[in-house]
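Deliverable D4.2, example record:
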Amino acid sequence: MRRSPKYSVFLIFGAALGVLVALILTFAFHGTDGQSPNTAIVYSQSQVFGFLALVGAGVGVLVGGVTALILDRALARRTRRIAADREHTIVL
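Output generated by the structure prediction step:
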């Protein structure tokens, strides 16, 4: 019998964690007051959050996927072979 993690749970949790980190970084630092040295545009906090959320969600999905793969490999070592019988009953 082999147990494996549900990859979708790890990917969604990683994305949510990435967005949470983006939220914390957006409101922890007030770097949106001045102009950007590259574009000479002032970005609002919601724009900064959007940029960070996109990057954070992508990185979070990547980290969640790698974590699920590592956990799957670790659980593969504990694989056991079992036998199961199937019974078929006909009721008339």
